[in-house]
Amino acid sequence: MARRFTSADVDRSLLTDKTIAVIGYGNQGRSQALNLRDSGYRVIIGNRDDEYRDIARADDMDVRDIADAAAEGDVVMVILPDEVQEEVYNDHVGPAMKPGAALSFAHGYNIHFGLIEPRKDIDIILVAPKMIGDGVRRRYESKEGFVSVVAAHADVSGRALDIAVAIADGIGSGERGIWETTFEEETVTDLYGEQVGGAGMLGSLMASFETLVEAGYDPEVVALELFASGELVEVQRAAFRTGVLGQLYYHSPASRYGQLSRVPRVSPPETKETMKAILAEIVNGNFAKELAAVEADEYRKIDELRESYAQHPVFRTEQVLRAAMGMDREEQA
Fold first, then answer.
1. Number of helical (H) and strand (E) elements in the chain, helices listed first
2. Using alpha carbons only, how large is the chain's radius of gyration in Å?
3. How far out from the chain centre does Cα 239 lie?
4. Based on the structure, what is the number of domains in the chain?
5. 260-299: per-residue pLDDT in tens?
6. Are 238 and 255 spatial neighbours (Cβ–Cβ below 8 Å)?
7. Counting Cβ atoms within 10 Å, is residue 106 exposed (0-12), middle (13-18) or buried (19+)?
8. Beta strands 178-180; 4-5: pairing state
9. What is the extent of the structural domain holding 76?
10. Which residue of the set 92, 107, 112, 153 is catalytic?
11. Which pLDDT belongs to residue 1?
12. CA distance 174 to 166
C-alpha cells in the first residue's frame, strides 16, 4: 500500500525562509500559489507577458520573467500545460535554476516519457493535487481540503520527498491526505482515468440516449434523466461524501437493485479486454507517440473529434435544454 502523509508528518522548516517560484498562473498555478502564500510561504510568479501575468499582479503577487523567477526559486513549480513544458524548461527554467534547488511538476508526463531531461544537480519532485484548479482554492479557503499525490524522481538533497510533502501540505492536502506515488504511476493512472473513465462516460451517454430515443421516448426528457438535470452531479457529490456504494442508500429500492443487478450486463468481460488494450497503449508509449503527432498537426484532430461529437443528437438536445433553463445566459454572465 502507498504511504500516506498528513500535516503531522510535515517539516515546514524545509520551506521556511525559502522562495517558491510558481511558473504559470493559470487555474492550477494561481490556486496553488495563493494557497502557498496564505500558508505563510514566500511565493514569486514566473510568467510571460500575457493576461495571466496581469491577474498575478492584480493578486499582489511578485511577478517576474520566467527565467528570473526560476533563478531565485529554491523550489520551482512548473504548473503549465504539458505541451509547452519542454520548451519552457529548456529555454528558461533549466538553465536558470541554482544547483540543489527542487524542480516540481504537477503531472509526471514529460519526465516519465523522457520529453524533458532535467539537470542532474537538482531535485525532481511531483506534487499532483487530485482536484481541479478552482477546487484547489475553494476547498483550501473552506478548510475542506483535497488529496494530492507526491513523488521524488531525483533526490539530490536527500529530502526531495519531504519537500514534496511540505508543498502538498501548503497547497491544502495535509488534512485529507498526501499519498506517495511515482512519476510513472501518476502518469499512467491519470491518462487511463481520462481515456477509460472519461471516454466511457461519453460513450455510455451517447449509446443510452440513442437507445431510449430509438424506442420512442422524448429526447429532452431522456437527456434530463441521463444528465442534463444536474441530478448526476449530486449523485457524484454524495458518492464523494459517503462512498460509491454508500450513496446507493439515497436511492429507492428499485434504483438500488437495478443498478447492482445490471452491472455485469453493461460491463461484460470483453469491456475489460478493451480497457487492458488502452492501458497497454499508455504503458508502451504508443499513446504518447500518437499525441505527439496530433500536437505536430496543431491539435486539429481534437477539434475534428469534438465537432463530430457535437453533431450527436444528445449534445444538440443539451443545447436546447440549456437555453430553456437559462444556463447559457449564466455561462455568458
1. 18, 9
2. 22
3. 19
4. 2
5. 999 999 999 999 999 999 999 999 999 999 999 999 999 9
6. no
7. buried
8. antiparallel
9. 4-181
10. 107
11. 86
12. 9
Give start and end residues of each alpha helix (H) in the chain. 27-38, 51-58, 66-72, 82-88, 94-96, 109-112, 133-141, 160-168, 183-192, 199-214, 219-223, 231-242, 253-266, 269-283, 286-296, 300-310, 313-324, 327-332
Are 70 and 46 in contact, with CB atoms under 8 Å apart?
yes
Select from 139, 159, 181 the last residue of a domain. 181
Are 197 and 170 in a shared domain? Answer: no
* Average predicted confidence (pLDDT) for the chain: 96
112 as an active site residue: the answer is no
CB 70 within 8 A of CB 97: yes
Q: What is the pTM of this model?
A: 0.91
Q: How far apart are CA 49 and CA 54, in angstroms?
A: 8
Is beta strand 19-23 parallel, antiparallel or unpaired with respect to 4-5? unpaired
pLDDT in tens, 242-270: 999 999 989 999 999 999 999 999 999 99
Q: How far apart are CA 124 and CA 105, in angstroms?
A: 8
Mark which of 181, 206, 231 sits at the end of a domain. Answer: 181
Residue type, 34: L
Write out the three cell numbers for 190: 491519470
**Cα dihedral sign for 305, 310, 315, 318?**
positive
- CATH number for position 87: 3.40.50.720
- In which residue are the cell numbers 503527432 written? 293
